[in-house]
Each structure stands twice: as structure tokens, then as C-alpha cells.
Amino acid sequence: MSSEDGVPVIDLADIQGPGLERICEQIAKASEEWGFFHIVNHGVDLDLIRRTQKAYIDFFHLPTQEKRKYMMTADFEGWSSPEVYNDPDLMKFGLTTAKTCEFMYHVALSRDPNQQPALSTIPPALRPMVLEFAKEVTAAQERVLAAMSVALGLDASALQNRFGPADVGIRANYYPLKREGKTVGELPAHSDLPAIVFLFADKVPGLEIRKDERWVRVKPVADAFVVNVADCLEVLSNGRFRSAEHRGAGSEAEERISMVSFYMPSKAATIGPMDELLDETHPARFRSANFGQMGLELLSTGLKGKGFVEALRIEG
Ligand SMILES: O=C(O)CCC(=O)C(=O)O
């Protein structure tokens, strides 16, 4: 099944039952052709999603001086907005430019028992929802990763094991209503760095993805997450799955919020093609790199293109 714009829609209702084989095939096809797909019946509680979304909107509606209490710190966690960039007295950290939308980012869950997230950048009113949301989204991401492993002909746990104990970061982007003559921040074209990304933006359009040489405006699908293959997964799959460039914007009809969950490999993980996928007819198309070091370097240079994939690509 696909939505009107052609982006595949995959029903995960039967992912832990006899439908697994069919779901794996659909996920493989979507990851190869689009790098993007919608998932429905994903197992994340819809009421929890809406409560989390409402809590973020309430935060973004607060007066600026309140939001400044959670200003982004050097580890890239916290709130940021174009006005931070226009204020000469404020420190600026990664990913934001004067034209980027207002957003908040925090690591909300770690699979490493020795390295739990600090959580101080998450406003207390949001914390219980965000933590519960992160828990459910992470479990859903790991179900999708297992299906992707099987689709690649690997053990169900192969990708997750290779990524090591993941951190899950949540980024909420806020796009106010677009009004004539007023510029609102957007997110420029980029691909995502980590392994797999889930985006929930509900019914308001604004996400565009690059398919071949054209930009496709993604038509929202009710209650669905949009899943995308990110750079690390393209590299691990030796280019079989593709991470697609995309960009985000607001709407003239309604304010828009997108909640984006990044499943990030452990900083110690080596990101390179899986050995099981290589042979004489399938030589490695990418070099290997340490995720912590390389990821940090790329994050500091900001959002653009498919930086990680291109940095590791072996020419020829
Ligand atoms: O808001 C959107 O639709 C895009 C969000 C996104 O690409 C991101 O946060 O990395």
C-alpha cells in the first residue's frame, strides 16, 4: 500500500506474528526505493503521543524568557531558536542557523545502564510524557530494526547488536503558522546521521523528501509515524538501504510540530558495512569509522546533505 504521494504505508499489526515475512519484504522495498515509509499499528500508544505533542506545544507557546531557562548547552541538548542566533550575547551550538526553526532536543533514553541521560534539559512539565514516549518509540524502533535485519538476510538482532547500547534523542521542531510577509524558520535539506528515525507530525503537512531528483511533499497518514533510514544504516547495509535527504517547513493552515526520535548507535560503535553482506561480488562501498568521533565532527558542521555517507563512501 502507498499513500497518494507514493510513499509506502506499512501496517505493522502482525509484526510479531505470521505477517513478519511480508512486513520484512515491504520494509526492504521501501528502504531500498525511498529510504522513507509510514508505519501504522506501530504499537506506540496514541493517547501518549497526543499528550506528549500537546506538552511540547504548550512549551513552545511559553514566553521566550521561560524557554530560555532551557537554552541549548554545549552537548547540543535544550531549546534553540532563530532569535538565539540573532542575539550577539548568546552562545550558539550546532545545527541552528538564523533561518532554522525553533526546536528542542534531548537524549531521553539510553540502553547503556552505565550512562543514563541527564534529563535536566527537559522541562519538568514535559518529563514524564517524554520519558514514556521515548520508551515506547524505542521499543517500536527496535521491532522495525529487527525486521530490517531479517530483510537483509541477517539475524533479527544483528543490526541492534552492531549499533551497541543505543541512545534515543527526541527533537521537537516548532513551525508557527506561516503568515504573509513573515518569515518563519524551516529545516534545510539534510539526511539524518544515526541509525533509524521516527517522525510524528500528525495531520499537518510540511515534510518533503528527495526521491531521485525531485522533492515529494509527504501527505500525512492518520496516526502514523514516518520512518526513515539514516546514514549509519545506509553504510551498515553497504548501500542497499538508502538514507534520503529531506527538509521540514511550516504550513499556512495551522501551526506545526514534528516530534522526531533518533535511534543513535553507541559512541563506541564502529560504523561500516556488515561483514555478512560482503563477498567478491559485493565489495565494501564504504570505509568504517567510530560513530562517536565522526558523529560529533559532523554535528558541529550543521545540517546539510548526506555528510556521513559521503565522508565514508569509497570512490570507484
Ligand atoms: O519537521 C519535519 O518535517 C522534518 C524534521 C527533520 O527532518 C529533523 O528534525 O531532522
Task: Describe this structure as you would to a colleague.
The protein has 316 residues and is an alpha+beta fold. The chain has one domain: Jelly Rolls (Sandwich), CATH 2.60.120.330. An eight-stranded mixed beta sheet has the order 1-2-10-7-12-5-4-3. Strand 8 and strand 9 form a beta hairpin. Helix 1 crosses helix 5 and helix 2 packs across helix 5. The two termini are 36 Å apart. The relative contact order is 0.16. Bound molecules: 2-oxoglutaric acid. 2-oxoglutaric acid binds next to strand 5, strand 11 and strand 12.
Name the descriptors.
oxidoreductase, Jelly Rolls, binds 2-oxoglutaric acid, 8-stranded mixed beta sheet, 316 residues, alpha+beta, 4-stranded antiparallel beta sheet, 9 helices
